[in-house]
Design brief:
Shape of chain A: globular
Oligomer: homodimer
Largest interface: A-B, 66 and 66 residues
Largest sheet of chain A: 6 strands, parallel
Distance between the termini of chain A: 48 Å
Structural class of chain A: alpha/beta
Strand content of chain A: 5-15%
CATH topology of the largest domain in chain A: Rossmann fold
């Protein structure tokens, strides 16, 4: 199925199921509303899945990995080779996302969508569109055709996971330089000054941050992406893994599967999807809000209320994996708690 | 072992292990400090356990249940019978804490330390000191002997769990009326005006809240507890489950086991323990901060930085169970992630 067919399939969430869930939660053996945010999550899950017994397992984290030509401008604290090295680490099982998905009882899929190295690793999903993007400071990151192909990789990866039973997809990414490209995408898509969007990434210093801002400003001036055309923005100043994540969001929303957003980069990808079709935003659950200043901006634009505030700034899907047991808790509260009637517990006055 | 022997055994956390953990975390394949609060938790676990490979499983939530004579004053949204009914619900497995401990891969122990009913339920730990406390508006909740006995129940329950292998204990409670008694304890122990401490509990209205404040002020005037004597405060305006939780904190701290604090009531119990011996506070991990205004006050007094802010106000150990997978994630990050050297990943510039 092509992108536009998938976009056309995306419907709004099920408001009747949300209402039924809210009523169900009020019958459970607890003071009204006393599970706070967990109850809001249960209502959102009902809307997304159309069920008052929403299931989120098996949950799958999909990590899209790609390189960025803009690293030639010295915008990152790590050399570009680290992208490939970390993909190897993911496959070996030694990275944070491996540990955190084990703790969260989820599985993780690693997709090479554009790493600048020849990778033949067991279990790696090889869907390389090209070996990294071009340097956005000098011209477009990639062609529109490449951006579409990357989105389609995301869509088919999501589709495969869903066919294999996945009931929740979480977004993850790896790509040295991708806070730079994500910041560029957000600055244009959200019409926000570049200085407000840019942060310290994986740990750059102040002078590198100044250079990063200048590089993004140059990239925007050189490429002149159309603020109203998400695909044009993706191709000109985005990245292959960002485009792949956009495809995952669209495919999951079309399948009425919740999408657990991770950090700044995946949230920018979710924003691109929401600009293509605003209904997609209804399928997003925000896992956390990082210290990257752009993350707060993009969460606000998406009306995402993050579950965690833990000063994370790693990516990989790490924040999504950390928040996953809380999303699971919301689904299990709805499915497994006894009602006042079932448990023979006296109802409250229900005054509040 | 008696209370004073246990208190004497409590040592400060292992600062060398904390330092070693901080160094270890900086060798793992992630940007420096990029796991934020998770890294702080790992360092705290190292200090508590004295190990850079801290283990928190099996984790056990201990729910202490008791009744409060002060419910005669109409301070709660629920009738007092709900305490016994909810204990039955815990044993049957239909309450929030049952669901949330299953999600968190923990077990739960339910202790009748003072429910005002004859309960014979399979799996219930029956350690009833007395059938509820007396009404604090008219005189002391209980004798000092009862308060000591309740603390000893907490100590022995914790000790049994630790003997059975528990590596983390989480605090839970059930007792209609216990936000009232906890508020009284906090007002005296923290020297805070009653109006600032009292909230809407499980869902009372404004006029009930005014009555609740007046009842606590009366209880303090009638009983005149000594602000410098935690045991006197516990006996005069506290509760049996609160005293039991104090015992758990002390026993766990003596055994160098982390204590995951739940909501307002369990945090007040932790504060009582910390007033008996300030070193006990080093073993506390704050799971969340509820909307109950006193919870923020007591967390500040304990220098607890809560992991979650989810507008919870249920108790039972529910917030502790929700936060448990995050504490587990901190321990597993320390134990399972690869170092830069192991994974052949290029180190960052480590400038920040």
């Amino acid at each position: 199925m092509g992108i536009f067919e998938v976009v056309e399939r995306i419907q709004g969430v099920d408001v009747a199921a949300q209402k039924a869930m809210a009523e169900h939660l009020n019958c459970l053996t607890k003071p009204l509303g006393s599970l706070g945010r967990l109850e809001e999550l249960a209502i959102q899950l009902a809307g997304i899945t159309g069920s008052t017994s929403p299931v989120i397992d098996p949950a799958v984290v999909i990590v899209m990995a790609a390189d960025h030509g803009v690293t030639a401008e010295g915008v990152s604290a790590f050399p570009a080779e680290v992208t490939a090295q970390m993909v190897n680490n993911f496959i070996t099982g030694g990275a944070a996302i491996n540990v955190l998905t084990r703790v969260a009882q989820a599985s993780v899929k690693i997709v090479d969508i554009g790493v600048n190295a020849d990778l033949e690793l067991p279990g790696l999903i090889s869907r390389k569109i090209r070996r990294g993007t071009d340097n956005i400071a000098n011209g477009p990151a990639m062609t529109v055709e490449d951006a579409v192909a990357a989105m389609e990789v995301g869509m088919s990866t999501a589709s495969d996971a869903i066919d294999q039973g996945a009931k929740l997809l979480a977004l993850g990414e790896m790509g040295i330089g991708n806070t730079t490209t994500s910041s560029a995408v957000l600055a244009i898509l959200g019409q926000v000054p570049v200085e407000q969007v840019v942060g310290f990434g994986t740990g750059i210093d102040s002078s590198t941050k100044k250079r990063k801002i200048a590089v993004i400003q140059k990239a925007i001036a050189v490429n002149r992406p159309d603020p109203l055309d998400p695909l044009d923005i993706l191709a000109k100043v985005g990245g292959l893994e960002i485009a792949g994540l956009v495809g995952i969001v669209l495919q999951a929303a079309a399948a009425r599967i919740p999408v657990l957003v991770d950090g700044f980069i995946s949230a920018v990808a979710a924003l691109v999807a929401a600009k293509m079709t605003p209904l997609a935003a209804q399928y997003l659950i925000g896992s956390h809000e990082s210290v990257e200043p752009g993350h707060r901006i993009v969460n606000n634009l998406l009306a995402i209320q993050p579950i965690l505030q833990m000063n994370l700034r790693l990516g990989e899907g790490s924040g999504a994996a950390l928040a996953l047991p809380i999303v699971r808790a919301a689904s299990c509260i709805a499915r497994e708690m006894a009602t006042f009637a079932q448990a023979n517990v006296a109802d409250s006055l229900k005054k509040l």
